[in-house]
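Progress note, sequence design subtask.
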């Protein structure tokens, strides 16, 4: 038995009028089917992400940047339905991981969870193989932190001024632990020393967490530590002495600890921001989806609570605002590097 379509085709062959109608109908049907396939294909392509996304953290696991990155990765995984994988790539003052992303395929599946060091590296490394504005597509700002100036009780100082007096009496005698040359922790101390008129000796480690561990073990007498890394130890009564914070005003987490400005060292505010960047040329649609989702979950009470528990403040915002921030930071740290004459090996 012939199908309905076959009977229509026979009728078209016997009747010219029917034949013309049949040809038009078949052409329209094919066009409609093709359009449906094209629309479905386009929809499939727009549903970013369709596979796991790798998020490069240019610092070791356990530091403040890594802590925040893992919270963000889980939120993206929950919100977008695909796994966001943390890949720690420390080294060269964060330049190793930064360059890896700058050279990655711009398809939205390799992202950089950048620390503030991405801006400080520009004036420190004239031959840097990437630029934080030129070689990335900005996604959005994630969070903001600050640093705590902490000393060993055995050092015998109880205030910032006493530390300054000791450093002036013994230039370069005092050592401090940093997360590595060129990192924002290193630059925060350089800014402090510039404004205080002192010099201490930098002892670089491969990240904030190793630096803090060396300090807590008594190997190092001074450290500027991100609040997210040192707060658990300060809360549990670890026998170390916080002298000041780099925030603009006293913070709820350490209400008894003064700011550097209150301690007689103005213009030393350092708010370290973390941000999400993608390789230059990443599709606009992927950037839009990531930025929208980032801003959405940064407003959720549970996200703000988790981030706040580490002494961090959610920020959010647009890609354009992130670009403006990076340009401001590059200009600021370029001035510090030139004034002090900082050189890194």
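Output:
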């Amino acid at each position: 038995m012939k199908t309905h379509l076959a009977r229509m085709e026979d009728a078209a062959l016997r009747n010219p009028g029917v034949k013309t109608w049949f040809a038009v109908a078949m052409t329209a049907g094919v066009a409609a089917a093709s359009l449906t396939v094209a629309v479905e294909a386009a929809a499939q392509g727009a549903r970013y992400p369709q596979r796991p996304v790798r998020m490069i953290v240019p610092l070791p696991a356990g530091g403040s940047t890594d802590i925040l990155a893992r919270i963000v990765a889980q939120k993206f995984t929950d919100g977008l339905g695909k796994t966001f994988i943390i890949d720690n790539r420390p080294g060269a003052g964060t330049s190793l991981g930064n360059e890896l992303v700058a050279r990655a395929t711009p398809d939205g599946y390799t992202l950089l969870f950048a620390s503030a060091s991405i801006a400080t590296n520009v004036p420190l490394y004239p031959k840097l193989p990437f630029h934080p504005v030129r070689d990335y597509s900005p996604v959005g700002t994630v969070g903001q932190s600050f640093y705590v100036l902490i000393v060993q009780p055995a050092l015998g100082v109880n205030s910032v001024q006493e530390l300054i007096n000791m450093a002036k009496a013994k230039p370069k005698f005092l050592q401090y632990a940093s997360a590595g040359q060129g990192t924002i922790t290193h630059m925060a101390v350089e800014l402090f020393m510039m404004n205080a008129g002192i010099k201490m000796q930098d002892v670089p480690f491969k990240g904030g967490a190793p630096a803090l561990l060396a300090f807590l073990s008594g190997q190092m007498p001074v450290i500027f530590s991100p609040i997210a890394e040192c707060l658990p130890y300060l809360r549990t009564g670890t026998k170390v002495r916080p002298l000041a914070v780099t925030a603009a005003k006293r913070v709820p987490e350490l209400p008894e600890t003064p700011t550097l400005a209150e301690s007689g060292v103005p213009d030393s505010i350092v708010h370290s921001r973390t941000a999400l960047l993608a390789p230059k040329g990443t599709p606009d649609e992927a950037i839009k989806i990531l930025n929208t989702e980032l801003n959405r979950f940064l407003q959720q009470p549970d996200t703000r609570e988790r981030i706040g528990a580490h002494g961090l403040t959610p920020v959010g915002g647009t890609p354009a605002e992130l670009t403006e921030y990076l340009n401001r930071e590059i200009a600021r740290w370029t001035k510090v590097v030139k004034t002090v004459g900082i050189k890194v090996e």
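Confidence is low (pLDDT under 50) at residues 1-6, 18-44. Work on this subtask will continue into the next period as scheduled.
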